[in-house]
């Protein structure tokens, strides 16, 4: 962008100096050059050459100002938005939290269907603009491997209508997650809803800076 700007300035200055020179010594040539660059030839008033040069300089300054404004506008439009706090530049290993049936059965029966039975399986994510969003989208795909299934990991994902719509991390560490609300999926029995919501909470709480999770709409994951 800077190269384009300075190249433009240099060309304008060269044209200005050359036209000023030939205006004084070769008016036909000045007219030809003026037409070549789509610039209307200026009439040089007798005895008022300095005024003509001043007018040309003022015109060039105006054109340069307009070009600078245009270049600045294009530069700003091409400048990436402020980096996400979850942006990464290298592959990262991240946990996806799912319910493990065999671990839950090790608990006393009155303690079963316990959020402590929600454990991670791991995935490697490439560099990302927002690793948290990418992780959540992978979580709700529910793509457990054959090995993870034999280890008794289970999930109620995916549901084709259940989607992450937005995420926003406040300065106090509260992460607001907006999902699409799906009848008979985002509501139900208390034990099921407890597990379903905590799959998401445990997955996002592993990210630095996330201290609390709020779901939107507030009717999500209600028994």
What does this structure look like?
- The longest helix is centred in the first third of the chain and has 30 residues, at 49-78.
- Strands 2-1-3 form a 3-stranded antiparallel β-sheet. A 3-stranded mixed β-sheet has the order 4-5-6, with helices on one face.
- It contains 7 helices and 6 strands, in the order αααβαβααβββαβ.
- The chain is 44% helix and 16% strand.
- With 223 residues, it is α+β, with helices and mostly antiparallel strands.
- It has helices spanning 2-25, 27-36, 49-78, 101-105, 131-139, 146-150, 190-205, and strands at residues 92-100, 118-125, 153-154, 164-169, 174-179, 212-216.
Which features does this protein show?
GMP Synthetase, Chain A, domain 3; 2 domains; 223 residues; three-stranded antiparallel β-sheet; single chain; alpha+beta; three-stranded mixed β-sheet; elongated; 7 helices
Put simply, the count of helices is 7
Radius of gyration: 33 Å
- Taken from the alpha-carbon principal axes, the silhouette is elongated
Structural class by helix and strand composition: alpha+beta
How many beta-strand elements? 6
Give me a quick take on this structure.
The chain has helices at 2-25, 27-36, 49-78, 101-105, 131-139, 146-150, 190-205; strands spanning 92-100, 118-125, 153-154, 164-169, 174-179, 212-216. The chain has 223 residues and is α+β, with helices and mostly antiparallel strands.
């Amino acid at each position: 962008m800077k190269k384009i700007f300075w190249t433009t300035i240099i060309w304008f200055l060269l044209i200005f100096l050359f036209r000023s020179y030939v205006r004084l010594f070769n008016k036909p040539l000045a007219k030809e050059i003026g037409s070549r660059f789509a610039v209307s030839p200026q009439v040089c008033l007798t005895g008022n050459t300095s005024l003509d040069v001043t007018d040309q300089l003022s015109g060039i300054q105006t054109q340069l100002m307009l070009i600078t404004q245009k270049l600045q506008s294009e530069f700003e439009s091409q400048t990436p938005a402020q980096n996400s706090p979850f942006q990464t530049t290298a592959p990262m290993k991240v946990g996806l939290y799912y319910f493990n049936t065999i671990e839950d059965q090790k608990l006393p029966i009155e303690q079963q269907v316990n959020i402590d039975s929600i454990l991670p399986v791991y995935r490697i994510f490439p560099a990302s603009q927002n690793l948290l969003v990418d992780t959540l989208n992978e979580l709700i795909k529910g793509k457990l491997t054959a090995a993870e299934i034999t280890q008794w990991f289970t999930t109620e994902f995916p549901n084709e209508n259940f989607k992450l719509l937005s995420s926003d991390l406040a300065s106090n560490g509260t992460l607001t997650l907006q999902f699409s609300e799906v009848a008979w999926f985002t509501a139900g029995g208390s034990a099921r809803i407890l597990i379903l919501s905590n799959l998401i909470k445990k997955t996002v709480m592993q990210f630095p800076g996330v201290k609390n999770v709020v779901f939107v709409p507030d009717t999500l994951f209600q028994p």
